[in-house]
Amino acid sequence: MTPKYAAAKAAAIALAGLSILAPTACKPSGQAQASRLASASPAVSVVWAEAVLKDVPVEIRAIGRVEAYSTVAIKAQVTGEITSVNFPEGQDVRKGDVLFTIDPQPYEIALKQAEAMLEKDKAQLKEAESAARRYGDLVAKEYVTREQFDQAVAARDTLLATIKSDEAGVANARLQLDRCTVRSPIDGRTGSLLIYRGNLVRSTDSAPAVVINQVAPVHVAFSVPEQNLPRIWEFGSKNALKVEALLGDGGTPDEGKLDFVDNAIDETTGTIGLKAAFANRDRRLWPGQFVNVVLTLSVQANAVVVPSQAVQSGQGGLYVFVVKDDMTVEMKRPKIDRSVGNETVIAEGIAAGEKVVVDGQLQLVPGARVQAKPAK
């Protein structure tokens, strides 16, 4: 190869290298390029909502189950035939209403016998008291011995004790007769009738004749993680904590008050059992029913709140697109406090008044131009 040819070839290689390196040196960074591409792209249609300041409740949510406020299993306390059933199944009853009648005739006879025995012993007591007085006068004059006087006094005292026993027997016979009329001990609703008219019941029967549940008021039982217990004690010591029960029909929640905290934490689940009382006047809550429970501990004032659909999840974590005044968007990664219903409470990173994108995020990149309209 001649020196002239070699010099020409080296010059050609140098020029080729410059032509390759020149575009690389002028290429912008990835973020700058994305912003430039976004600026050159057509504006993206999005919907925005404003971050607002509002008072937000501090809540604990759980699944609860409705329980009867009290339950009574009605059993016979005397033995006999059921002569009447005075309620239909599933009827509301009031305290004192007659539910069953058990044949009272044997107990009426027993009461009359006890009363007759009492009257007989009372008559004998009068005679014994008179004899004791006579013997008292005679022993003073030494007409009778001291032993005879003591016997008369003992006979009188024995009859006094017998009369007390007779009075107890009369009271017991009257009690047994009263138990032939079975009354409701609470206001509540009857369940299925398990024993019908004409059946023989015994005081030793283990099965109830009917079960009555008190459903107004009613309890809702639920459990929360044990780490919530200090906050429950803190806020519950000042005021009765509000509890809402939400049914699956989407209607207005029923409102009650927390009235029971269990005395131990469940070791297997790490939860603490709670109960709330509800007036349940409209009977929307029914024993055995599952409900969504919201326990309100307190209210956080002036919290920054955005719609929950504004918060998106990506590889770097949660983020929110904010619409700036120049109609471009900025990606922010705020610190999320909690969600309440369809809203998210922002701890820091977004200020009240900022416009956050709630629809159209999938087409956005940082710096993208947008056509934004407010959410309805």
Folded structure, characterized:
This protein has about 375 residues and is of the alpha+beta class. The chain is about 30% helix and about 40% strand. The protein contains five helices and 20 strands. The protein has helices at about 5-25, 30-40, 105-140, 145-180, 230-235; strands at about 45-50, 50-75, 80-85, 90-95, 100, 180-185, 190, 200, 210-225, 240-245, 255-265, 270-280, 290-305, 310-315, 315-325, 330, 335-340, 345-350, 355-360, 370-375. The strands form three sheets. Strands 1, 14, 15, 16, 19 and 20 form a six-stranded mixed β-sheet that branches. The protein has a six-stranded antiparallel β-barrel with strand order 2-9-12-11-10-13. Strands 6-5-3-8 form a four-stranded antiparallel β-sheet, with no helix packed on it. A hairpin with a 7-residue loop joins strand 10 (about 240-245) and strand 11 (about 255-265). Helix 3 packs antiparallel against helix 4 (about 145-180). The longest helix is centred in the N-terminal third of the chain and has 36 residues, at about 105-140. It is elongated, with a radius of gyration of 44 Å.
